[in-house]
Each structure stands twice: as C-alpha cells, then as structure tokens.
Amino acid sequence: MRTFFVFSIFYAGLGVKPGSGECSRSKNLTHSAAAMYNIFGEYIMLSERELDSISFESSLNRNLRKISAKNIDSAVIDTVLRDLVEYRRFLTDENRYSIIKNISYRIKSKESLLFKFERYKDSDRDLKGILNDLMGIRMIVPDYRQLDNYDYLRKVDMTGGKLRDDGYRGIHFYYLKSPTYYQIEIQVWSEHDAIFNIWAHDYLYKTGNDSLGGLIRNRYDRDELKNADDFNAALETLKGAKSNE
User: Does 184 fall in a domain?
Assistant: First the structure.
C-alpha cells in the first residue's frame, strides 16, 4: 500500500504564524493541507534510494557510535561544523535537490548544534545520538493510521508522549546509511499534534519550561486552548503556580 503525505513547509505550510495568536484551532490545518495538495500534489515517503542519495558522510571517518559525549573535543566540534557547511552545498547538487525541493527539510543551524553539544556534554550519549537530527524532514498527516512500517527506517512512536512528558506528540523515523554517516530524522505529526508542537517549540522548549508541557497538553487535548495566546496564558498560570510551591 502506498502512503501519501502532505509535505508542508515549516510554519508557513501549517498556517501558523510563529509568535502570534492569529491562527485559531478552528482553522486547524485543513485548509492549509488542502492547499499543499493543490500546489504540490501528493508525495510518498522517501524511498531508501532517495534517502541514500541525500545522506552525508562525516569527515571524522569514524563510527559515530564509538565517539562518546565525554570525548567530544574542539577538534570534533570544528569538524562537524565544517560538515554543516558542506552538507548544505552537497544538497544543492541537481539530482539531490530534485529529491528535497518540494518537502520541508532543514540542516541544523550552528547555534542549535552548539546548544546540543553543551546540553549533552556530560551525558552517556554518543555522537550519533547527539546528531540524530542534523538533517531533519517534517511531514504532516491527517491521521497516524495512514502510516506504514518501513523496513529501511527505525521508528520511534511518541504519539502517547515521552517518558518525561513535555507535551510533544509525533512519530519519528530514522535513516542511517552506515555508522560513519549522519542520521536523517523524519518527523511525522498529525494535524492535531502539529499545532501544539509548534507552540511548544516556540514558548516551552527554548525557554526552559518544557517540564510544564504535559500539563498544558492536557488542556489542549480538552480543547481549552484555541490559539497561541491561550497557550501563553496557560503557561503563565502554571509558571505562577509553580513559583508559589
């Protein structure tokens, strides 16, 4: 069975303006999704051959699983940062660009990468785990039941939340060409989850308030949050209650 998706452009394709309260839950993503179909048509999950073509090998020339976070030094970081630049150039090749030109993707920014290195420097992660989303692709689907299982992708199901619930919901697929290559992450969100995930990205995760995400998510699922203003109001209320404990 072929599974079809809407490949939506980050934020713009969702009909959500970052940092605003202008997009209501009533609009959801229905019209935006339909518009993406009208403009771009239907797209199937990237094939193994296509993912192979857009995979990039690390200049470290080592198994990234064998490099622990505690052994990452400035030389490793500098190499990865150079690879960021080369990866972007690599994707401008005509054949590779033809694979990704109509989908939502990004190569991680230097700032985000340095943030991850700092965050996990004393952890038990390896370099492969820290760089699990160096290349990221995002898809929006009306319903997760549309998804198939793909034998060339590793699947991580977070539709029921994470172990430490921060409100995020979705399914991630990972493609790894070989241990010396950077992993490709494919995020798949339902239309319902996409709205919350974007609000949470803008107002929770970047501000260190992700511990409140699960509580806010409960209100969202009860349809109490109609827009980003409602989300922020709920966040401020919970922050105030937490500070008074």
Answer: yes
Does 205 fall in a domain? no
Question: How far apart are the C-alpha atoms of 170 and 185, rounded to whole Å?
Answer: 12
Residue 155 counted as domain residue: yes
pLDDT tens by residue, 150-197: 999 999 999 999 988 999 999 999 999 999 999 999 999 998 999 999
Asked whether residue 203 is assigned to any structural domain, the reply reads no
Domain that holds residue 175: 4-192
Count of structural domains, the chain: 1
Dist CA 32 CA 80 (whole Å)? 36
- pTM, entire model: 0.80
Give 202-233 as a DSSP string: HHTGGGT-GGGHHHHHHHHHTT---SHHHHHH
How many other β-carbons are positioned within 10 Å of the β-carbon of residue 129?
16
- Report pLDDT digits (tens) over 51-88: 999 999 999 999 999 999 999 999 999 999 999 999 99
Local structure of residue 187 (DSSP, 8 states): E
Cβ partners under 8 Å of residue 193, min gap 6: 159, 169, 170
